Amino acid sequence: MQEDLFGDAIPQPPASKPAASSRRKITKVSLATSALELSDLAAQLPETLRFGVSTWSYPGWEGLIWDGEYESNILSKHGLEAYHLHPLMRTVCVDRTFWRPLTVTQYSAYAAQVDEDFRFVVKCPSMITDAQVRDEQGKVRKSNPDFLDIRLAVEQFVQPAVEGLRAKLGVLVFQLSPLSWGWLNRPAELFDKLGQMLVAAREALPQDSPVIFAVEVRDPELLTQGLVDTLKASGATFCLGLHGKMPPIDEQLPLLRALWPGPLVCRWNLNREFGAYGYADAQKKHTPFDAIVSEDVHTRTVLARTIRGITGAGQAAYVTISNDAEGCAPLSIQRLAQLIAAHEN
């Protein structure tokens, strides 16, 4: 907030020096002790399964992730160090990269806050994966001349993430924003362009890198054999994007079957009850994100079965969940973990 709310503030005498306690800056956030009670549950999950959230700056997770009350700006800066100690949280999706590329230094700062077992899921900047240039409200301004640009994908996304996160980089997600009919009517050209970018991006990885490439789409029209062929040819997988803009999980699974064997990358972003553009409504209903409010038993059940099948075959599974899925991402993960563990025993 601004320190001076009035343009012509009356001059005041110098304030006395505040006590040291009132000037203390919070530089550490601690894990809620109750979270450690989930260690036994975590031990029952497949080793190749990694759960995570899609940001870590929510004050509402007090008692679930955080040991006390913290402002969101404090959690944004220092919450990751506490979050990664949670027994169920072995990954996180860095969504902020979608809006602006990060530097090697910024990625390195994230890596320094987590242990060697932790892995990051990182989204490609929209300046590469959105065919449109949009304003701050999301309205289209013009066509994007840098759509799926190979040089930008390598220099602004792959190389900084690899160099900054090193062995802690798990998945690079290329989320294609909703496309115009012009592109949807030229799928062969689209898939060719996408395939060339993915191949070049993979060549920018260190030799024998285990990093997973995953492509998420926001247009059901793209769920075709053409997409399957493109992903196979480039060594990428399909990212299950669970929200109202795409079909239910059952109708997306055939793409994973067509790509089998391979890993699972899933981003459960929005409960379908809010429709394709219901993020604002979901936020309003779910705030402060400390309880399951919009339970989705069907998606959870099918996702648990899918995770068991894929990890049972020795494949990796990265599953990140948003508060907008059911109201509280940590509790969604806990219930999903319980469902998986019940069948493992």
Automatic annotation (TrEMBL):
UniProt protein name: DUF72 domain-containing protein
Segments of this protein annotated with the region Disordered: 1-21
